Amino acid sequence: MRRSLGMAALLLAGSAAAADLTLRPQGPQLTRAVQQALAELSTPGLSLRLVTTGGPELTLGSASSVPFNPDVAVRTVAQAGERRIEINPQGPLALDAAVRQALAQEFDLDAWTPEAARLRFSGADLNGDGAVDLTDLALLMNSLGGTGRGDLNGDRQVDDADLKLFAEAYQLP
Fold first, then answer.
1. Run of H or E including 47
2. According to DSSP H, which parts of 21-170 are helical?
């Protein structure tokens, strides 16, 4: 089953961007931890916002009878077409670190840094130079038919839908 990144939209406003990330944290403790984690990655040029109307559920502890491996901080469970990200309350990481690990995995971040988030969520500017240009198109074309850099719509595939999004963002000089 293909995993959705949970990214609802990228809204570009001038040079600043905002990314709405969909995830359903269960309870105020997890909601605060997710909001704090997203604040760590947000910059004046890119604001990451939590949207709780969709995406996988994030729980503290197991929602099933399957016990956690004590060495595992986070696991993803798929059941009846729904995905749930479970955080081990007795795991090897504190809650803040476990949430960061879960979000890094969910949103396919190479590192937990504002720079990694900017590269991942800044839209069609694939090389992060502040412009959507032919260099970005070359990067997208190199990934066409695969996964990774160039996946502008967050479906974990680089395909015609991503080319369309790129075309909408590209401005002739």
1. strand 46-51
2. 28-41, 95-106, 114-121, 134-143, 160-169
* Cα(95)–Cα(98) distance, integer angstroms: 5
Q: Report the DSSP pairing between strands 57-60 and 24-25.
A: parallel
**Rounded to an integer, what distance in angstroms lies between the CA atom of residue 17 and that of residue 120?**
12
Cα(29)–Cα(150) distance, integer angstroms: 34
Q: What mean pLDDT is predicted for residues 38-54?
A: 90
Tokens 């994030």 label which residue? 58
Whole-number Å distance between alpha carbons of 69 and 46: 36
The one-letter code for the residue type at 124 is: A
Tokens of 66: 């399957």
Q: How far is CA 45 from the centre of its chain?
A: 17
Confidence class for position 93, pLDDT limits 50, 70, 90: very high
Give the CA radius of gyration of the chain: 17
Give the residue among 118, 150, 112, 107 at the shortest CA–CA distance from 8.
107
